Amino acid sequence: MSLRTAFIGLGAMGHSMAGHLADRGMLVAVGNRTFAKALLFSDARSVKAASGFADYANCDVVALCVSADADVLENIDGLADVLAPGAIVIDHSTVAVETAREAARRLAARGIQFLDAPVSGGVEGAKNGKLSIMVGGDDATLERARPVLEAYGARIALMGANGAGQATKAVNQILVAGINEAVCEGLAFAEKLGLDPERLLPTLMAGAASNWFLDKRGATMLRNEFKPGFKCAHMAKDLRIVQAMADAAGIQHPVIDRALADYSELEQNGNADADTSALITLKR
Ligand code: NAP
Fold first, then answer.
1. Which of 215, 221, 257, 270 is deepest in the core (most CB within 10 A)?
2. Which residue's alpha carbon is nearest to atom 30 within ligand 1?
3. What pLDDT shows up at residue 127?
4. Domain end residue (candidates: 104, 125, 160)
């Protein structure tokens, strides 16, 4: 029998992810902080727009893709009050390892299972249903939740116990932040040299400098288009988490520090909701 699934957080990522669940006939309700977004979705896809946590009470699985740690825990507390023992909550937001473990503890006290399952692949990966999903939790819970994750995941990897998904995402974000720094610095330099983007971008993409960010955001950033995508404020949030983890681990982290300084500046100069490719404006 199909899992009765709800999805909370209909933003750049969640809207498409919830859409894949609706396509598979698994979605029964959606929720969002700004209720109007949930109503729009529910009108388009004939699912319930949840106006309170009671609307999730009959769900087998509730997936979240909200903004930050406090948003996750607020939803965990609401869901803990209404879900039946044996239900599963999956969190796709990027938050701290400790937040994932705390969410698991609060739900376990009510007999509810939890998977931290942050994602990578951007809004394109969410739209195409081709996300890489990094899971923390136990194997039996993942197997029960797998049909939900398969609706939008191309790779679903169990990384360890609760928190291991978020730990993997922290590693992912160091790589993403460093790649973004290099691409934006490189393309700002190319502009100064007067190189033709029509020839530059495919030439770079054909060689060892090829990467997701250059492919998906290279042309738009050269046209000064910074529609998200992935917001600078979310990247700064991620890097604050990662910086604290790297300090605790005792590694040197100049890549994290440079990138966090840049995204903090972008947050302060009015670009918090711009795509991370707005980083090129600083490199110029
Ligand atoms: P987004 O576009 O800002 O969307 C966040 C959505 O969550 C919004 O619709 C927001 O509602 C809703 N929301 C926030 N707090 C809520 C709460 N307490 N209760 C209910 N709904 C709430 O963000 P996004 O880009 O989809 O990213 C979501 C999460 O995934 C973040 O943790 C981000 O770091 C992570 N992520 C993003 C990407 C990406 O490429 N965009 C990739 C991987 C991971 P409102 O309508 O009220 O704002």
1. 221
2. 93
3. 98
4. 160
